[in-house]
C-alpha cells in the first residue's frame, strides 16, 4: 500500500475519463502507479487485440480501408498488433487461435454501415462536468436511417457481460458520453449500444434519465473519493493481476495465478 504524506498532497488533476474513474475503483494501487507515478507499464494481449479491431473499423469508417480490405489487413496485422502471448486454460487450450478466428469471422460477416448515417468516428472530446472535466473517445455515432434514431456505439472485445450488474457498470460510459452528444446535437442519443464483435452481438439499451443520473452521480462521487484519497491499497485478483494489469511484472501485491 502507498500512503502519501502531507507534502505530496492528494491527486489533483482536474480531467477524468471513464477508464481513469474505473481504474480507481478497480485497484487504487494500480491507479497510483499510472496516474500519480506515471509509470508506463506493459500492455496485454486483450487490449492489443481490441486496439487492432478498433483501428480496422476506424480506417473503414473514414475511407482508409474498403470493406474488401478488412479481412486481408486483419490477417497481415494480427501478429504485429498483438505480439503478447495469450494465456491458455483448461477451458481454452489455445486462446490466441480462438481470438484470431473470432475476429476473422466477425470481419468476414461485417456488412459495413448500410442504412446508417455516420456522424462521428473515434471522436475525442472534453466537456465540463460538475467542477471538473470529463474526457473520452467515442467509437461511433450514427443515425439509423430506418428509425431516425441517434445511436452511440462502443466496440467491445468481450464475449459477454457476466451479469446485468456488470453490463450496467459498463453502460455508465455511454451515459457519460451522452452528455457530449446532447451538447453537440441538442438531444441525448435514443439508444446506447455495445457491439461485442467477438460474438457479433449487440447489447443495446434505450437512453433514460435515471441511467444518466446514476452515471453522473457515480462519476462525481468517484472524483470526490480520488480528491480525498491519501492511501492506495491494492485489490489483488488472480486474473486481473496476472493477465490485465499494466504493472503485473513488478507489483509486490500481485495475487497468485488462479489454478
In short:
The protein is α/β, with parallel strands linked by helices and 259 residues long. The protein is built from 8 helices and 8 strands; from the N terminus they run ββαααααβββαββαβα.
Q: Regarding quaternary structure, how should these chains be classified?
A: single chain
Give a quick account of the main beta sheet: strands, pairing sense, barrel closure.
6 strands, mixed
- How much is the radius of gyration in Å? 20 Å
**What is the strand content?**
15-25%
* CATH architecture title of the domain at 116-222: Alpha-Beta Complex
Q: Please report the distance between the alpha carbons of the first and last residues.
A: 26 Å
Order of helices and strands: EEHHHHHEEEHEEHEH
Helix content: 40-55%
Q: Could you name the CATH topology of the domain at 116-222?
A: Lambda Exonuclease, Chain A
Write the SSE topology.
Blueprint: E1 2-3, E2 15-17, H1 18-26, H2 28-36, H3 45-61, H4 70-81, H5 95-109, E3 116-129, E4 132-144, E5 149-156, H6 164-185, E6 191-196, E7 201-206, H7 209-228, E8 231-232, H8 238-244
Parallel strand pairs: 2-4, 5-6
Antiparallel strand pairs: 1-8, 3-4, 4-5, 6-7
What key phrases describe this protein's structure?
two-stranded antiparallel ribbon; 259 residues; alpha/beta; Lambda Exonuclease, Chain A; six-stranded mixed β-sheet; 8 strands
Walkthrough of the structure:
The protein is built from 8 helices and 8 strands. By secondary structure, it is of the alpha/beta class. Among the domains are: 45-109, no CATH class; 116-222, Lambda Exonuclease, Chain A. Strand 5 (149-156), helix 6 (164-185) and strand 6 (191-196) form a beta-alpha-beta unit. Helix 3 (45-61) runs antiparallel to helix 4 and helix 4 (70-81) packs antiparallel against helix 5 (95-109). The longest helix is centred in the last third of the chain and has 22 residues, at 164-185. The chain starts with a strand and ends in a 15-residue tail after the last helix.
